[in-house]
Amino acid sequence: MPTIIDGKKTSQDIKNEIAARVAEIKSEGGKIPHLAAILVGNDGASQTYVGAKVKACHEIGFESTLVRMEDTVSEEELLAKVEEINENPDIDGLIVQLPLPKHISVEKVTDKIKPEKDVDGFTPANVGRMALNWPAYVAATPYGIVELLKRYQIETSGKHCVVIGRSHIVGSPMSILMARNGYPGNATVTLTHSRTQNLKEIAQTADILIVALGKPEFVTADMVKPGAVVIDVGIHRVEDSSKKSGFRLIGDVKFDEVAEKASAITPVPGGVGPMTIASLLYNTLLAAERKVYG
């Protein structure tokens, strides 16, 4: 059996570590970290995500502010709200939950967030700093994956890492992080995507396979080298009448058959997913303690 890389347990460990630090800050009379989230509209998944983030803040002793705006809000009004939070010295981190309504430019909104409050790691300043291997807020999912590799002591130096998917949120930053000079890193990285020819053959050469394509159970056992480490970033709901909820969650990897070949693998659910909130909280702690931007 492979090692199951348990994101649920690891994320709880990180939250416990952050809570201990918050308790120290409180006892020293310091400033409690404060995360603000802006939620536009009534998208069900977005409400669930933001609710989980707010709940996690309270669990570890952070302060949090949730700003709700109608999906009819103008771009100008949203940008003004971002600017207001930028200028509020009490708030350390700001996230604007995506997706946004079609009439609002994600680029404009992201660019408006002050880099030192951008705990999602999406602004050009933080992406650029990450690429240069400078102190930066790394996007939550890539940071979560890096932390899992580190805590499970998975060797990355000199390994061939294949990333499937080139999104700005996961695939592209993962390729940079795995190639950088450090640990986890120093891997030889191949970044693949929907236009890659002989993707199967390339995937078969991976010592570490990171799958963030957004296609349910895309990676099958015949694409995986025996003994590979497999990180599954995908999450999909599929109907399942045997479940009380009527659905079950699956990833981009066909878990049961790939697990038989892998040396270590993340499950879905309970793998990469829980790490994203822990990473966001960690970035907010860094912001409150001025660890990145001084």
Fold and architecture overview:
With 294 residues, the chain is of the alpha/beta class. It folds into two domains: 28-114, 3-Layer(aba) Sandwich (Rossmann fold), CATH 3.40.50.10860; 140-273, Rossmann fold, CATH 3.40.50.720. Helices cover 38% and strands 16% of the residues. It contains ten helices and eleven strands. Strands 1-11-8-7-5-6 form a six-stranded parallel beta sheet. A three-stranded parallel beta sheet has the order 3-2-4, with helices on both faces. A hairpin with a 7-residue loop joins β9 (236-239) and β10. α1 (7-27) packs parallel to α10 (273-288). It is globular. The model has no long low-confidence stretch (mean pLDDT 96). This is Bifunctional protein FolD. Belongs to the tetrahydrofolate dehydrogenase/cyclohydrolase family. InterPro entries: Aminoacid_DH-like_N_sf (IPR046346), NAD(P)-bd_dom_sf (IPR036291), THF_DH/CycHdrlase (IPR000672), THF_DH/CycHdrlase_cat_dom (IPR020630), THF_DH/CycHdrlase_CS (IPR020867), THF_DH/CycHdrlase_NAD-bd_dom (IPR020631). Homodimer. It catalyses: (6R)-5,10-methenyltetrahydrofolate + H2O = (6R)-10-formyltetrahydrofolate + H(+); (6R)-5,10-methylene-5,6,7,8-tetrahydrofolate + NADP(+) = (6R)-5,10-methenyltetrahydrofolate + NADPH.
